[in-house]
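Hi,

Apologies if this is the wrong queue. I'm a grad student, and the batch job for Putative Zn-dependent peptidase from Nitrospirillum amazonense produced an output file that my downstream script rejects. I'm not sure whether the problem is my script or the file. Here is the sequence I used:
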Amino acid sequence: MSDGSGIQVTTLDNGLRVVTDSMTGVETVSLGVWVGVGTRDEAPEVNGVAHLVEHMLFKGTPKRDAYQISQQIEDVGGHLNAYTTREHTAYYGKVLKEDAGLALDIVADMVQHASLDADELAKERTVVLQEIGQAEDTPDDIIFDHFQATAFPGQALGRPVLGLPEIVERLSRDDLNAYVQGHYSGPAMVVAASGRIEHARMVDMAAGMFGALPEHRDWTHEKASYRGGDFRDERDLEQTHVVLGFEAVGVHHEDNYATQVLSTLLGGGMSSRLFQEVREKRGLVYSIYSFASHFAEAGLFGIYAGTGPEQVAELVPVVCGEVANLVGSIREDEVARARAQLKSSLVMALESSMARCEQVGQQMLIHGRPIPVAEMLARVNAVDVDAVERCARRLLESEPVVTALGPLAGLESYDRIRARLGH
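Support response: The file is valid. Your script probably expects a header line. Output copied below for reference.
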């Protein structure tokens, strides 16, 4: 199947999808495996197993030990990496075009034949615990885990990607094996490649290297239920870190793009309302921005700010005021500027083979098809003032999330913040 843009898709007999995005003007290939599972697919008693599996897949197979995995890819000047999110896991790399077969063979070997050696697991568990400790020591990082947990308390979507230390400490080889065998299957995986690659060759290689993948996919996401609420962690820091958030829409919702336009308008750049009012006019922060996170059937809209303990008493009311005043004040020129920013970021990504590879890999997992750039641009262009206002009203109708870390004496109560937002 081709969408007419150089992107082609083939589904193998075991359900594995192969998608390529041809770029004739480059001499490299970016490729990888995108798996449609992540933290929200874990049972609570093994929180962190998806991320630990990601680490352990680099630690050797019967064919290659950990050193040989890195050595073989770097011998040809390439590189490999991976990441875990709440809904996806990815293993990817970039090489010269003539080395695409080697790179895919290494990734295929890792994903399907990892040894999960007990000694390596003991060492890598320590590495992950250090990663968790480093995140805990980074306030403008860990606050987003608290934000997610407060929005979706007691739920898979609210649990941290890295896992809880007390759980990671006891994860066993059997836990990792069970997770891989239960989730890493043909229908759950996409082989994606972008750059100087022929689709037929990629399909042939994938069929030879991934043909033994199981065909099952018999699990479903736990449905997310947004709650909202308040989380505060008093710490002796130089800054107070605050995330104010609201319920937003899922990735398949018709207002997905309108929510992104709203986020850009409110806090997506130097011309945004929050940057101009909070930083330029009042000098209350160094960093402030808004963001929208879209999951399968749920979403979050958030505003992050880091400020001095003396400024937080003024900062939060100003931010609440900017959010509360959105409805009825959104102008066409701001929407047009936000649309232009989103469209330019979409088009600029086309210049990177890695960004294009990741884009089609994720689109296949999320939508079951590649989304042509023209279609994405058309959806952004269709966002008007009414759509953005509708998204703003939706935010204000939800219970807010207030997450704060640092010196908190100047931070208003949760009830007072709710009142400022019309609750």
